[in-house]
Write a structure and sequence with these properties.
The protein is of the alpha+beta class. The protein has two domains: 2-43 and 148-214 and 315-371, FAD/NAD(P)-binding domain (3-Layer(bba) Sandwich); 87-143 and 216-312, D-Amino Acid Oxidase, Chain A, domain 2 (2-Layer Sandwich), CATH 3.30.9.10. It contains nine helices and 19 strands. Strands 1, 2, 9, 10, 11, 12, 18 and 19 form an eight-stranded mixed sheet that branches. α1 packs parallel to α5 (147-160), α1 packs across α9 and α2 crosses α5 (147-160). The longest helix has 18 residues, at 61-78. It binds flavin-adenine dinucleotide. Residues 8-14, 31-34, 36, 40-43, 45, 48-49, 170-171, 197-199, 201, 205, 220, 222, 263, 308-311, 335, 337-341 line the site of flavin-adenine dinucleotide.
């Protein structure tokens, strides 16, 4: 069957794009190897941080501000709470690139940001223990997105707008052309335009078109710890990112009494996305435990840990671009462990690219050509 647009990968980015394109009147097919939201890719684990004073660089701020507006619009459309304004505290040495970028982003875009010494931060959040060389920059309007609920919300709206969602049907090969041919295990589909939002599988999928992208699927772990609710519940304790000399940890307050959630952003081993991930093990537990012991010493026992996949680019910036020599194929990949907060705006951008050939957002930093 011929579709206006086929979207390969109906996860964080693809599901949002499916909604915007269906709403615009396109005949859309969303294809996924699993049944999103699911636990095989990059979008499980309840929560994702959204922050606007952006530690990865000031150029992200207009994009994430747009994403914030679209999350609010999504909440209104589905009449559901998807965002929790817990605030987010960015912690690091004052000279670290993330703290410098957070401050520069806030200044340039007039974002609320309160900066504290380690001692002041420990007075404000008594559950926190910080060495004196660190500072804490708190963004009160930032917070937490309910990741699976966000994807469910876009799924509901995309289906209501007329999209077709085909689950448990992995795309095996793509053949480019004026009409794109998409082959799954069960069926062949045709499309006038194609979006590839295949997350950790983007590299292997594009290889079927002889296109190489530098995106490495990477194993990541995260865990929940028992928490003293007086100190760590979301009403009194923020989400956080802590950059140390050789590591970067992030985490969440105890939301609905589930405990403190914690993960490590840097590092992780390259993996084959088709192989089961090595389960959360003693080494993962020890790493997270030594961190939480130092920085949130009044935590309780480890409850459980999980694994997940990042899709890393060499510079940790995203790829959002037309494929070279194919004006009807767009790829959005390589979200490098910080993409979810943008997925509402990425969905909008992908629809703009297919409808208008261009986007209102500046996508220059995300071009594929930067790797050549
Ligand atoms: C532990 C962890 C913590 C994170 N924390 C944050 C955070 O706090 N804030 C933040 O902004 N971001 C965070 N991220 C990053 C964010 O979750 C990801 O950047 C984002 O989910 C990536 O979206 P995606 O659409 O590229 O991938 P996914 O959401 O994984 O979607 C890809 C989809 O493509 C499908 N697919 C793949 N290959 C095929 C195929 N051949 N045929 C059909 N379907 C296919 C998959 O089944 C999947 O559903 C975190 C990620 C992890 C893993």
């Amino acid at each position: 069957m011929l579709y206006d647009v086929v979207i390969v990968g109906a996860g964080s980015m693809g599901m949002a794009a499916g909604y915007y394109l269906s709403k615009a009147g396109k005949k859309v097919l969303l294809l996924d190897a699993f049944n999103p939201p699911h636990e095989e890719g990059s979008h499980h684990g309840d929560t994702r941080i959204i922050r606007f004073a952006y530690g990865e660089g000031t150029s992200y701020v207009p994009f994430v501000k747009r994403a914030g507006e679209l999350w609010q619009a999504l909440e209104r459309l589905v009449d559901e709470r998807l965002f929790l304004q817990t605030g987010v505290v960015n912690i690091g040495e004052p000279t670290s690139s993330s703290i410098q970028n957070v401050k520069a982003s806030a200044q340039l875009y007039d974002l609320a940001l309160d900066c504290y010494s380690a001692e002041e931060a420990m007075n404000k959040w008594p559950g926190l223990a910080l060495p004196a060389n660190l500072v804490a920059c708190f963004e009160p309007t930032a917070g937490v997105l309910r990741v699976e609920a966000c994807i469910q919300a876009y799924k509901k709206l995309a289906l209501a707008a007329g999209a077709t969602l085909q689950t448990n049907d992995k795309v095996l090969a793509i053949q480019a052309g004026d009409i794109v041919h998409i082959q799954t295990a069960n069926t062949a589909y045709q499309a006038k335009q194609l979006i590839v939002t295949a997350g950790a599988w983007a590299t292997e999928l594009l290889a079927t078109m002889n296109i190489t992208i530098p995106v490495t699927p990477t194993r990541k772990t995260f865990a929940w710890f028992e928490a003293d609710e007086q100190l760590y519940r979301d009403a009194v304790f923020p989400a956080y990112g802590i950059e140390l000399a050789d590591s970067f940890y992030y985490g969440f307050p105890s939301i609905d009494g589930v405990g403190l959630k914690l993960g490590r952003h840097d590092g992780g081993e390259a993996v084959d996305p088709n192989e089961p991930l090595r389960p959360f093990d003693d080494e993962d537990r020890e790493d997270l435990q030594q961190f939480i012991q130092q920085f949130m010493p009044q935590h309780g026992a480890l409850k459980y840990g999980k694994t997940c996949k990042y899709s890393m680019t060499p510079d940790e910036d995203f790829i959002i671009d037309f494929l070279p020599n194919h004006c009807n194929i767009v790829i959005a990949a390589g979200f490098s462990g910080h993409g979810f907060k943008f997925s509402s705006a990425v969905g909008e951008v992908l629809s703009e690219l297919l409808l208008d050939g261009t986007s209102k957002q500046d996508l220059t930093p995300f071009k594929l050509s930067r790797f050549r």
